[in-house]
Amino acid sequence: MRNTRSSLLLGCVLLCSASLLYLGMSGVECPPKSHRYRWMELNMGSANQSLALTEHFPEDTPLIFIGGFPRSGTTLMRVMLDAHNAVRCGEETRVIPRLLTMRATWSRSVKERIRLDEAGVTDEVLDSAVRAFLLEVIVGHGEPAPRLCNKDPFALKSLSYLSHIFPKGKFVLMLRDGRATVHSMISRKVTISGFDLTSYRDCLTKWSSAVETMFSQCQAAGEAICRPVRYEQLVLHPEEEMRKLLHFLELQWDPSVLHHEELIGKAGGVSLSKVERSTDQVMKPVNTDALSKWVGNIPSDVLKDMAKIAPMLARLGYDPHANPPDYTRVEHMESPFNYSQSLRASDNPHPS
Fold first, then answer.
1. Long-range contacts of 59-62 (CB under 8 A, 24+ apart)
2. Cα separation of 87 and 67, whole Å?
3. Contact 251, 262 (CB under 8 A)
4. pTM score > 0.90 for this model?
5. pLDDT digit string, tens, across residues 172-189
6. Which residues are catalytic?
């Protein structure tokens, strides 16, 4: 009898242990899939789900790059695109412009190029590595979406190189009256390496140089690859400008792009950084509050020399002697390119 009871007791203990182990294991959740894994699932299609996911991405990934001088509306543009149901931009990565600058430095130094070539680190090797790094960062730092975009303002200083390593990429260059841009930068204490925030003259001179670099590369890339968007026209005529932009990006019209503020913090919506200087402004609906805040704040001697200090103002169609210009006048805001292809009817957009 004692042996029978012992056997039953041992059996009960083993059964209970097995049950607890099963229940414990069934309650353990699998680790969440990475953004990279989920993006590849989304874009590789169900036919490829049985294949192992590689550690690289297709070279012809059709990325969207948003750039321009800081305080020119780059954040506003990216949150408006983030509101589109097929697009994810996300916050600034900060590392992408730095890597692009480093890559450009290697190319400019003849001695360094010779050393790299001798080591077998050719341009093709470097380009492949840079492409892989950029894709890993862009794909991995946010939620997956059919179209991914990156917003790092000064990345477009390397627009020509980016269009070389991403031949299917599209580029959006944000332009804004340099006086408004510099005033915003100085008044909000947005530090940029090499810029003297105590001097409007210094900042406007360097603004003109930086914008010329990006604008010239945008023009050279052509209207099929790069589209300049004026901040003033975006806030004055948001629907018109966004329809043109989505057509350029070959995306269907989505009215949510006009109401990005309603999607902030929501799943699949707009994610904002706590440290970016523009966050507090883009939490509001699109507005024209900041158009002419610079008027009355720039020293008179700088205003007098404006055309000489910032020649890009006139090149972009802004009157350097008007304080402020009439931003509503369409003739001052024509596209720097001759867009011969007319916008398709809103009921017949490009497929996304």
1. 59/131, 59/165, 59/166, 60/166, 60/167, 60/168, 61/135, 61/148, 61/166, 61/168, 62/147, 62/168, 62/169, 62/170
2. 16
3. no
4. no
5. 999 999 999 999 999 999
6. 92
